[in-house]
């Protein structure tokens, strides 16, 4: 199958890209590994409620079916994405995982795990930044008697064995899961404090415009900003006070494993029944052609356009264009920008002598 463009991923980023491709009159397809758009959200923990109001969770052309100031839960977000793909009859092919990506005669060739092959002038990788759970190198040293899981695997308190729980990582996911477990378990929350902001700021149009709407600086300042982006964002639903009130014990970061148990930075060793790693993710971009990804495992790009492989774009990466990039509210604008730039790709880049450039 030969197309103008192919999008990998039918989440918020991928569907935003699909809408813009449809508006541009492109021939395209969207490949999604799950059975339905939104299934990634359906795998999140049961109690999840977004701190982003519905008005900032909208895709182009269709308002979120909640009051603008309401906060969608996990299933409402998943349902919206599934319904959106159907409402606009977007060409989403579900149950297809991309196995390999090569560039042949200036075109992007994708091979699915089902053996299917699809070719397109342009490729938009919209799998985001949360594809592969990350845990510390010493995580495997925990004693076998200690139940361990990543936040990506956590669903509900009933799934956690009786006994004390250590949550590693005090960002949004760690704090939310800690609060979810506080009524049924003794909970320890390890990690550096991130601070907190009132939920009113998350709802504020002024804050969204003045903070999230700002473009990430170019050059060395932009690189510095991105280097600091790995730090957890301030809490919104929770605060140090609400965590204390729930009986959650705050402790320093986990520095390693001693005698099969987690050892804190202050030297204490905690005897816990379960450890939940809320230690982040990295992008699932291992399938991309050599040169598309840098030594750090992150795509090499400038404002969402690959600097090493012509015709390759990204949507859904943190800080790829504005401070909203990577958040739901920033993905539609980023998608529009990437689709526009790829559509203006010079014809010479599509010829048979395509040679990827050096990593920027």
Give the proportion of residues in helices: 10-25%
Q: Secondary-structure element sequence? A: EHEHHEEEEEEEHEHHHHEEEEEEEEH
- Main sheet makeup: 7 strands, mixed
N→C terminal distance:
32 Å
> Which residue ranges are poorly predicted, with pLDDT under 50 across at least 5 consecutive positions?
350-360
Outline: globular
Can you walk me through this structure?
This protein is an alpha/beta fold and 360 residues long. The chain is built from 9 helices and 18 strands. Strands 1, 2, 3, 4, 5, 6 and 18 form a 7-stranded mixed β-sheet that branches. β16 (301-302) and β17 (305-306) form a beta hairpin. α1 (12-23) packs across α9 (331-343). The two termini are 32 Å apart.
Descriptive labels:
9 helices; globular; alpha/beta; five-stranded parallel β-sheet; disordered C terminus; 18 strands; 360 residues
Short overview:
The chain has 360 residues and is of the alpha/beta class. Helix content is 22%, strand content 21%.
Ordered list of secondary-structure elements with their pairings:
Layout: E1 2-8, H1 12-23, E2 28-32, H2 39-42, H3 74-87, E3 92-94, E4 98-104, E5 107-112, E6 117-125, E7 132-133, E8 147-150, E9 165-168, H4 172-181, E10 187-190, H5 199-203, H6 205-212, H7 219-227, H8 240-245, E11 249-251, E12 254-258, E13 261-264, E14 274-277, E15 281-282, E16 301-302, E17 305-306, E18 312-314, H9 331-343
Parallel strand pairs: 1-2, 1-6, 2-3, 6-18, 8-14, 9-10, 9-14, 10-11
Antiparallel strand pairs: 4-5, 5-6, 7-15, 12-13, 16-17
